[in-house]
Specification:
single chain; 123 residues; alpha/beta
Length: 123
């Protein structure tokens, strides 16, 4: 009986120390991305360089260049970790890097547009 009680307490303590929830990362295509962001108030982040962003970007996207690590970390701190974040880059590589950083920083739901801006502007 005493061992069962002790085991129950240890199990409870072990479970209570786990994070509230694991980050949810969803890799999406153009159709899903479009339906999730168009006409909605979302956290949409273009992780390309400023120069790339200025040449064209998805409407309402903010630009946080993932290649500029220090600035990127400061910029993502302005986002709400509890709300979904939608990421894209040129083709999908840099957004994947950004996903990893956001996961490490405690963001809960991250959508990664696999095709990137090149896919967005293609027919």
């Amino acid at each position: 009986m005493k061992g069962t009680f002790l085991y129950s307490i240890l199990l409870f303590l072990g479970l209570s120390c786990k994070p509230d929830r694991e980050p949810k990362v969803v890799v999406v295509n153009k159709a899903v991305f479009r339906s999730e962001i168009m006409g909605k108030d979302v956290q949409l982040v273009d992780v390309r360089t400023t120069k790339e962003y200025e040449l064209g970007h998805i409407e309402d996207a903010i630009n946080f260049d993932v290649k500029d690590s220090l600035a990127f970390l400061k910029q993502i701190s302005t986002l709400d970790k509890e709300e979904p974040v939608y990421l894209y880059c040129k083709k999908g590589g840099r957004s994947n890097r950004a996903v990893q950083i956001l996961k490490e920083k405690g963001f809960h739901t991250i959508f990664d547009y696999s095709g990137g801006y090149d896919d967005w502007i293609s027919n």
